[in-house]
Amino acid sequence: MKRVLLVLAVLFLFTAPVYAAEEAPAAPVSIDQMINDTISPVATWASDKVFYAINIRGQDVPLIILWLMAIGLFTTFYYGFANIRFFKLTLGLLAGKHQSEEGRGQISNWQALSTSLSSTVGLGNIAGVAIAISLGGPGATVWMILMGLFGMSTKFVECALGIKYRQINKDGVASGGPMYYLSKGFADRGFGPLGKGLAIFFAICAIGGSLGGGNMFQANQSYAIAVEATGGQASFLSGQGWLFGIILAVLVGMAIIGGIRSIARVAEKIFPTMAGIYLLAALTIILFNINQLPDAVMVIIEGAFNPTAAAGGLLGVMVAGVQRAVFSNESGIGSAAITYAAVKSDSHIGQGLISMLNPFIDTVIICTLTALVISITGVYSGDMEAIAQSDIKGILLTARAFATLGDWTIYWLAISVFLFAYSTLIAWYYIGEKGLTYLVGRGKNDSHVIAFKVFYCSFTVIGAAANLSAVIAFTDAMIFAMAIPNVIALYVMAPEIKKDLQQYLKGIGK
After folding, report:
1. Among residues 70, 6, 392, which one has the least CA distance to residue 207?
2. What CA–CA distance (Å, rounded) separates 92 from 99?
3. How many CA atoms lie within 13 A of 274 on its CB side?
4. At 65, is the pLDDT very low, low, confident or very high (cuts 50, 70, 90)?
5. Which of 89, 194, 216, 377 has its CA 20 to 30 A from that of 19?
6. Using CA atoms, how far apart are residues 330 and 183, in angstroms rounded to an integer?
7. Which has more confidence, 274 or 327?
8. How many CB atoms lie within 10 A of CB 221?
9. Helices then strands (H, E): number in the chain?
10. Region of residue 53 (phi > 0: left; psi between -120 and 50: alpha; otherwise: beta)
11. What pLDDT does residue 431 have?
12. What architecture is domain 50-507?
């Protein structure tokens, strides 16, 4: 228990205010402002470190973006475009074809896919797409789609490794993910200390990522749309982010109390509901504006390859699209490998192939529809400078697009956003928990896990009250930092998975 308290204390210190001898402020500071003042310095520091950029033809390009683009291209070519060749096979595997009904683990194929999608199909698909368009114009959509397709191959290899190297305890609890294939896989190759060090780094980042992107960003944007739906500045929720966060934290606590089985049961019910509601709404808007669809598509394509200088040029558009795509589908991050490690299956290659559906559904389908809604409704003016100075960013830009169909659609969007955020919150809790238990164990009577549940829910309150820019900076830094050790493992262990894939295909007659 002492170790887990030490880890949580260090994390808290990174988000605790530093007081200096100053004169007392003339006016009282709100709770929301106190929280935001606390988060902002940490967010800035983390973002500067993780998103270290190099200048290419006048455009600052973060090295971490190039890092993730490279692994997406590498896995796609190295595995012979498995994302395309085995797409039909993947659908069959999800339906149970070529798979034994028996297998070690805790959750089913559908529960694993739903839980993984719940952690990725979140507000990155609604607010993240709007942010990408705000920064790089509609053309950023094309690069999001391409990154989603490349990400399918990356997702395959990391989830296959997550299951192959998972650890199943005597009580049947499964634990897996980059922490385990880094430590075990590298040890098998004679690099034990290096693998262990990278595994520890990943576990720490997984905890931070769960608190940031999996928690605070979701709470922040769901609060923003709740205020918008209940009257904007006149809403009774305006300036009460902490109160909204408390309510949301209680709901999250109710779902995560039973562990992965409870989370998976909730996820497999919420995911089809939330996806169905959102897709129906998006398709309705597109149908009502069907005459503008060709023009919207042309704007997206032209913006991808002939962007304006205000959009940052070609590199600026690419960076905006790729960054939000990775934040949305998390390919190369390693988070899905942790979730899939709990699936009831002894075929790591089969489950790895199923996991390729995650980026396809998340980015290629849902993100594309969001971009079309924003472009087809005309809420995106094309004036990048005006957008940069506007307060209508993130989820609010998407809300404006939905409102073109009628003021009532804000409620439709609010319900979708809440379900997206809630499902992501509960799914990312599990990822953070596994990072913590890898570092300090479960503790006597699961004491460490219980402590983390309380700690995690407290960050839901922080996220709802914090400023959007601070949340995005902290979110991106923690989640993208997970990619550093994970991608190293994917390169090192690629030949092993390629050999396993060839044997698996031979075994099923493919």
Report:
1. 6
2. 10
3. 30
4. confident
5. 216
6. 21
7. 274
8. 30
9. 26, 4
10. beta
11. 92
12. Up-down Bundle (1.20)
Domain boundaries, the chain: 50-507
**Which amino acid is present at 396?**
L
Q: Whose structure tokens read 């739906």? A: 229
Residue type for 228, please?
Answer: E
**Three-state DSSP state, 20:** coil
Task: Find the Cα–Cα–Cα–Cα dihedral 79, 80, 81, 85, rounded to 10°.
Answer: -110
Instruction: Provide the pLDDT confidence category of residue 23 given band limits of 50, 70 and 90.
Output: very low
User: What's the rounded Cα separation, in Å, for the pair 21 and 23?
Assistant: 7
Amino acid (1-letter code) at residue 384 = M
Q: Reduced to 3 states, what is the DSSP secondary structure of residue 80?
A: coil
Helix, strand, coil distribution of the chain in percent, nearest 5: 75, 5, 20
Give the residue carrying structure tokens 């993240």: 128
Question: Is 347 strand, coil or helix?
Answer: coil
CA of residue 284 relative to chain centroid, distance = 26
Share of the chain above pLDDT 90, in %: 21
- Listed in sequence order, the residues at least 6 apart from 114 whose beta carbon sits closer than 8 Å to its beta carbon are 264, 267, 268, 271, 272
Residue spans of beta strands (DSSP E) within 324-393: none
Q: What tokens appear for 455 in the block?
A: 């700690």
pLDDT digits (tens, 9 = 90+) for 222-270: 887 788 777 777 777 777 778 888 999 999 998 888 778 888 888 888 8
The answer to whether residue 19 scores a pLDDT higher than 50 is no
404-409 contacts at long range (C-beta below 8 A, 24 or more positions apart): 404/285, 404/289, 404/377, 404/378, 404/379, 405/284, 405/285, 405/288, 409/281, 409/285
Instruction: Tell me the pTM.
Output: 0.82
